[in-house]
């Protein structure tokens, strides 16, 4: 097996080892043993234990995220697409957390120690939101705004429904209503100024 | 001292002990020793170690929250009051976290183990938001809506700026801009429907 060893095989084995032994105990030697290769063979693909753990985490985040990227591509108005994107993200995270809580807990530890990987992942998600916002602004559906800042605000405002810190809430009663209420608030917020601005004389209460 | 021992004195001493020894090690005997009384004197006020820790946590949350309750009472339109309430909450939490990180870490542990106290505290905060929303709806400033659900949505949407899970972000660059962006999104979201609804023929994009 050693001469055809791929990075993908190593990452798959590393995930199994991390789940079985826990992130605190799993070593590169354990991964090599599981594959029946020397630890040198693993190090040829990943120069350090930290690099291997980062690669495992990146792969997990990318995979969890694949259906979300697809969700941005559905046809229809930007508000429909954004709502679909947000609910797909929530569903993907919720399934990960509830279907395999042990693996989810393992990755929660890894995510906590690989902040660079997570920052990259979040930037990628925020960029997808920004893409939908730009389409919505171009279509006159969303208000013109600082797109990158607003995209991050959408991500922040929906954090209870994608940040693993809240995973204990995701099976609770009322969570779907809570999600819908936040989505509605956010989508109204994106549209609001657009509907105000062109209507001279509309009653808008402003602090004076 | 024992014959004039008050609950308040015990709670003050318990906070000191928790900070000094850490939540994992602090005991009722430590608290009694710090006060120069028997542990029986402490138990006359608080029937168990858990009850004492809950009372300490409740006191801390209530105190952190006092300026926030005041913020709901400022004069002006509901949107100004809500923004002021949210920024006062963020400031209060941020000061707690940054001014005395050791005590904040201690309380983060306590908050994690006293879920009933925290749920009560959150319900109280959400009720204050709901009060501002009702005033705004009565004044025609905010859209009519399910007030309790929407108040919770406002609380959830601003979680990055009050949930201790995010305290590591609160000293980062850009956090104030991020806060303003979420506030603007939320306040636009509250006003949006009100401006749409009475205007027949206004262009509202809905999924069909």
Automatic annotation (TrEMBL), chains A, B:
Gene Ontology MF: a single term: transcription cis-regulatory region binding
DNA-binding region: 27-46
Boundaries of every HTH tetR-type domain copy: 4-64
PANTHER family hit by this protein: HTH-TYPE TRANSCRIPTIONAL REGULATOR RUTR (PTHR30055), TRANSCRIPTIONAL REGULATORY PROTEIN (PTHR30055:SF151)
Keywords from the UniProt entry: DNA-binding, Transcription, Transcription regulation
InterPro entries per record: DNA-bd_HTH_TetR-type_CS, Homeodomain-like_sf, HTH-type_TetR-like_transc_reg, HTH_TetR, Tet_transcr_reg_TetR-rel_C_sf, TetR_C_27
Protein name as catalogued: TetR family transcriptional regulator
One Pfam family here: TetR_N
Organism encoding this protein: Actinocrispum wychmicini
